[in-house]
Amino acid sequence: MVRWPRRRGRDPRLVDRWFGAQTEEDWLHERCRLAATCIDEGANVADLGCGLQVLREHLPASCTYTGYDLGDMHPDNVLLDLDEAFTLPEEHDLAVVLGVLEFLSDPRAALSRVVENVNTVVLSFVCVHEASQADLKRREAVGAKHHWTEKELLQILGVMGLNAEARHLVWERPGERHLVLRLTSAD
């Protein structure tokens, strides 16, 4: 995977891990492979919070892909801040939101804006699972702001009218469970 050089004027919310440090880790590619299994052939995909566009290499060749992110870590990224009001500039069949929600100021509002643009969402979330205080502090140290259990996440999604059609486990370790979900809007 190519690592793109830092550019001046980066948003202070961006940290080193989004600049390629994780792109060589097996779990990241496994997450993208699992997410790709939730995406139909020929879909027009909006990858929100795409970073270096790792998902793109795992999609079927028939898919149309647009990567959106807060930063320009990849030269093809369309700049979009999920913590601000937004509308996607083009129509997409589905949105992918991998490893992003737990870092947003208001993930519910961001996900509501996503669902205003598409009826299908593929997301990943690292849920707390029998987490200790040390686990929570470790999560906070890497910037996680939301520490939902899987049950809490599914309740939040249900209240938003999103139904889980598929569930995949990326990994489970002490204190955390990393999930990929394919969600459809009841509307």
Kindly describe this structure.
It contains four helices and seven strands. With 187 residues, it is an alpha/beta fold. The protein has a single domain (16-185), classed as Vaccinia Virus protein VP39 (Rossmann fold). The chain has a seven-stranded mixed β-sheet with strand order 3-2-1-4-5-7-6, with helices on both faces. Strand 6 and strand 7 form a beta hairpin.
Uncertain residue ranges? 1-9, 11-23
The coarse overall form would be globular
Determine the CATH topology. Rossmann fold
Category from helices, strands and their pairing: alpha/beta
Order of helices and strands: HEEEEHEHHEE
End-to-end Cα distance, whole Å, is 38 Å
The helix fraction, in percent, is: 10-25%
Strand order of the largest sheet: 3-2-1-4-5-7-6
CATH arch. level architecture = 3-Layer(aba) Sandwich
List keywords for this structure.
187 residues, Rossmann fold, 7-stranded mixed β-sheet, 4 helices
In short:
The chain is an alpha/beta fold and 187 residues long.
Architecture blueprint of SSEs:
Blueprint: H1 26-36, E1 44-48, E2 64-69, E3 78-79, E4 94-97, H2 107-117, E5 120-129, H3 133-141, H4 150-159, E6 162-173, E7 175-185
Parallel strand pairs: 1-2, 1-4, 2-3, 4-5
Antiparallel strand pairs: 5-7, 6-7
